[in-house]
Every structure is written in C-alpha cells, then in structure tokens.
Amino acid sequence: MVSRSSFLVLFALSASSLSSAAPAARVPAGSSAELAILETTDLHSAVVGYDYFKLAADPSLGLDRTASLIAQARRDFPNTLLFDNGDTIQGNALGDYQATVDPLRCGQLLGIYKAMKKIGYDGIGIGNHDFNFGLAYLGQVTGQRLDVEGVPGRQCAGPGLPVVLANVYSTRTKKPLFEPYRILSKRIKAVDAKGKSFEATVKVGIIGFTPPAIVNWDRRWLEGKVYTEGLVETAKRYLPEMRAKGADLIVAISHGGLDASPYSPTMENGNYYLAQAGGALGGIDALLLGHSHQLFPNPSSTVAQFNLPHVDKAKGRVFGVPTVMANLWGKNLGVVRLQLRYDGKRWRADQDAAIVENRTTQQPDKSYVSADPAVMSLVKDEHEATIRYVKTPIGSADFRMSTYFADVGDVSAIQIVNQAQAAYVRHYVAENLPQFAKLPVLSVSAPFKTGSAGVLDYTDVAAGDLALNNAADLYLYPNALAVVKVDGAGLKAWLEKAAGRFNTIDPDRSEPQELVNTGFPGYNFDTVTSPELGYEIDLTRPPGQRIRNLQLHGAPLPAGQEFLVATNNYRASGGGNFPGLEGGAKTVFTAPDASRDVLIAYIKEAKRLSREANGSQRSWRFAKVATKGPVVFHSAPGKLELARAAGLGNVTQLAADDGLGKGFALYAVDLAK
C-alpha cells in the first residue's frame, strides 16, 4: 500500500516531462478564454424518459431531457466539450434487449450511442457495467477492435467518438484495451489582454479510468483476457506523455468515486488519490467522476465520500482539482467552467477560478425540462420492440412486491429471488456437484432499488399478472448466479457487513435519529429469507458487532457449520468488499444462467405466487430497544398500507413531506416493538 504522504514522491515527475509544445502561433500572451467541460455519467441505457419496469413514461430520467440541458449549456458558453463517463450501455430493459434478446448486428448502432452521436459528444469513457455483456459485445458497439483472445477482430459500427480507457490491458498484447488517451484540438473563442476577440486552438487531453475490480466482478468475461492497473500508477505512466505530446489541459474521465482508505491499486474508488497526485503536480485540470450515482458538488450532501479532508463539496474540489459527478440516468449535467490564460507558451487553467456546478432536469416548480423529440425518433423502433418484449407473461401473484420498506423488514420483493436462487442451486448441486449434496443451501439477495435515485426509485410490482418487466424490476442487474461456500463464522461476518446499512442508534437521545446510512448502498444490504435461519440486528452496537442470536433451526449456529450460499457473481467475486469473498476465493461455481433468468424460470414453474409462500418469510429482526426519540427513515409517501400488509406494525408515517424537497415522506420505526 502507498501512504498519502508518499504520493508526491511516487509522482515526482520532472518539470521537463510536464512541458508541452506551444499551440498555434500568434496567440498573444495574457489572452483568456472560458472552456466549459460538460459531463454525463451512469446513463445506464436510459435513452428516453421511460420506465420499462413500470411501463410508463418517467420525466425524471433520460438522455432526451439531458439533451435539452446540453443545448442550453452550449448557448450559455461559447466554448464547450461534452464527455460521457461510462456505465452507458447496460442498466435497463432497452440495454438488455439490444444485447441479449435481439442482439445488434455488426452494422447496427446501439440506441444510446445513436443519441450521443446526434447530440455531439466529444469523447466517452468506459464504466464497470459496460463489461457486463462481455468483451465481444463491448468492442462491437463501441466500434473498437479489441485485441484479446476469443474476441473477433472485426470493425463494427460505433458512435465514431474517441473512446478512452487507460488502466485496462489486453493479456495477449500487454497494451491498453482501448486508446488510453486522446488529445483533442478544440477551436475556441478567446480575447486578448485588450479585450479583442479572436479564435485559437487549445489542445485538451482526455484520459479514461475504470474500477480495477472489474476483473473480479466480471470474471466470467474477463479472466485470462485482460488485467488492470491502479489509477495512480496509470496516471504516472500517461500524464507526462500527454503533456509532452502537447496537451494544454488534461481532463480525467474516471468512472469511480472517492475513498480515503489507504491506497491500493485494486481499490474501487481511487479518485481521491488520483486527484491528490494530479492536483499537486498540475497534471489534471478537471476530474469527472461517476459510478457512485451521486451529485458533486453538493453542499448539503451527507455522503461520507464527499465529507473527507481536502474535498470541497460546495465548490467542487478534490485536493484543489475542479471535480464533478453528474448523478445518474441523465438527471443532471455536470459543468466545469475552466478559466484559461495563455502564458506565451500554452494555455493554462486557473484551478482556483474554475466554477463547478450540476444542472438538473427538474425545475424549481418540480416540472422537468422538455425532452428533445429528436432523441426518441432515433430509437423509436428499439423502444417499441423493448416494450413488446417486456410484456411477455410469466405468471401471477396475489400480493404486491415492493422495496419501500425493505430497510425495516419487508421481504415481499426479496424472498422470491432467494427462493429461485436456492432452488436452482439445490438442483444444480444434485446434478453436477454431489460432493456438496449434504451442505445446507441458503440464498441472499438485496433490495436493489431503495430510493437513492429519487422517490420513484423503488421496486413496485402490483398484484396480478406478472410479465418479464416485473422480473426485471425484481432483479435489476444482468448478474450471473454464483455460489460460495462459507462456514458459520463467515456467514456471520457477511451479515455484519450487510448491517452496515444502518446507523448506530443511541437509545438515550431524544432528537430524531436517522435509521439508514445513506453512504451504504441498498444493493449491499444482503438479506436471508429462510425458515432455517434467524438473527437480530442490534442497532445500539457499532458496525461489525450487531448480529445477535444467529440461529439455525432454532439453535445457536455453530461457527464451523458449512453452507452453500447462492448470490451473484458481483458479490461472490468481492463486490461490495464483503469479508472473506475477496477475489472469488470462496466461489464453488458460477452458473451458466443469469440471475434474472433463474428468477423468470422459477416464476414460470410456480405459475402463481402467494404472500404466504413467497413474500413473508423474514429471517431477521431489529433487536428490541426503547429509544427516547424517534428513529426515522425516508420513503415514498402514502405507502403505509404496504408496511401493514408486510406485518410491520411498528412503522408510522410522521409526515407526508419530509421537508427536504425531493418528494419523500418521513417515517418512523419503533424499535421497542
């Protein structure tokens, strides 16, 4: 590991290596200009404002509305560059349809890339989810020849944009999988020291990064084909080269968030250290973040990664580097306004003078900017085909499955996933792995949608007929089912990690206390829903010491009792940093079937689901404790009857509006009941 204090030594690049060739002659010294760097990130194939799970328009998301923000920014600023920061091609039913149901032919252009080409992006990065459908598909849709084993070397239709990714390498060639960086020559409008307008050229280098953990998360596609390098090491390799080749400015398109844990080349969110190194040496002029599905800058944010030393969440700075993260699904447009001055040799950006902001599609009156109709016209056929596909019937249910109250014990949208996974594993083991036949099988799943992206961001499947779109709502990601072997001690450690979803509660405090730790994603709140297992979560204890009364068949769970646990390839390979699962060390097998397909097959066989059989089995409870003040959480308003239907008599709605201006209601949970 590399300490923070050693970074300047690690990054001691010579002054000569940071020099650059001068741009076009006749630019007077002292000339100035403003260049606005625009960012989208984590679009997750949300081309248009439509929810394929609910089969309804959703004006809160979609690149078609971001397009209107982009058009306005181009009117506001005479000089702009527009970049996307990855997690672009996967994430909704449209993305799945084009990748797996009616796969694109080599000559076809992916829907999201059609829109980006039309809007006029200047470059794109690659996120971790862009690897979810495999390297052959990624190379095809981006129009790149990926020189790796087992991937066709043909050139297919792509968006025709620079695609940059510096820290992923082909095992065969030992060279970057994509172009690591590109230096763009941008014509800009500038003024000289006397205020006279003229045009000039500024050379902007863009470099891409993705989380190194992709090699674990998508092991089934990437193992033996690619390897990764840490963000700091990659920057050390390429930043001097970019300057030497004439880059006046460097924009890092880095698909990740911030983490001040001790640096490791494999860390998921290494941009804290990337900014530290790049900022100290003047190597990065603007840092574009993603992956975490958050807004930055955001003065009111309580997210831990934005409340670190040297992070200015109001001005958008990380170690002084102007930094932005534009949320997800096209809800926001990140803007970094760089103030440039020509020093007689090259253009330089004044980091202190940069203005960083996020523009939102939602207006002050709660309405949304108008969608650009040209975007829908580009993908009309794909959009309508996706809707037809997701309406395919698979079964029915006599109860509503939702995650509005998953944080307080509603398993209506979780138990069916666990049942499907466990049934699959039992059958697979019986047929293929008789050596494990005597081990008990458990399953864990998490509430993937818990409001992090807004009041509509919950799983909500109505009672009645079920179709493919409902299965996609219940299981959001295109993961593969995976199985790990753990003992009782390992299972307890797993559940302890999942219990990090909650804040520590002080029973003696009379003021309201927030139940949910917003820095801990809902998709990491792994939940067991088995009649064999029971446990309590004691919120008065610190993280790591909360699991009490862990029992198997009503008796204390022996530390040495072994289990097979059904989960997904992300978790089994170390995703979420769960103890003991690092690098896939406990994986017994990864199924050839996607988790969502396993769920669909189970529902088809069951035909009709009931709450009693498929939506009411809780393995966990909060340990009972009386608190002097309320323990509160936020969810969609007017849903209390769903808590009652789930048997949660200890939940009340305190206010239909929590006062934070995002449409949530304020609820309370009585931990004494």
Describe this protein's structure.
The protein is built from 17 helices and 36 strands. It is α/β, with parallel strands linked by helices and 673 residues long. The protein folds into two domains: 4-382, Purple Acid Phosphatase, chain A, domain 2; 392-508 and 518-619, 5'-nucleotidase,  domain 2, CATH 3.90.780.10. The strands form nine sheets. Strands 7, 8, 10, 11, 12, 13, 14 and 15 form an eight-stranded mixed β-sheet that branches. Strands 1, 4, 5, 16, 17 and 18 form a six-stranded mixed β-sheet that branches. The protein has a five-stranded mixed β-sheet with strand order 26-21-30-24-31.
| Biggest beta sheet summary | 8 strands, mixed
Number of helices: 17
Question: Would you state the CATH class of the largest domain?
Answer: Alpha Beta
Q: Provide the CATH superfamily of the largest domain.
A: Metallo-dependent phosphatases
Strand content: 25-35%
**What is the total domain count?**
2
Give the number of DSSP strands: 36
Average pLDDT value?
93
CATH architecture of the largest domain: 4-Layer Sandwich
Gyration radius, in Å: 25 Å
Q: Within the CATH hierarchy, at the fold level, what is the topology of the largest domain? A: Purple Acid Phosphatase, chain A, domain 2
Query: Helical amount among residues, as a percent range?
Result: 10-25%
Cα(first) to Cα(last) distance is 46 Å
Low-confidence parts lasting 5 or more residues at pLDDT below 50?
A: 1-24
What class do helices, strands and sheet pairing give?
alpha/beta
The general outline is globular
